[in-house]
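ok so for the tutorial part 2 we go from a plain amino acid sequence to predicted structure tokens. step 1 is just haveing the sequence, like this:
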Amino acid sequence: MSVFIVRAFVQLRQILADHRELAYKIAELERKLSDHDEAILALIEAIKQLTTTKPLPVTQRIGF
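step 2 — the prediction. this is what the tokens look like for a chain of 64 residues:
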């Protein structure tokens, strides 16, 4: 019986280690995505500023 208990604890330790690594990888992906989201929003804002047309000032025509 003690062999089965030891195997169960070894398997439990392996599962916990795998989940810890998986949690770390998920957190790393979330961090990368948030960095990319911020960069994309900055690009969109810059494009909006460049594409907005300002009205031309009204001037009097010279001539006839």
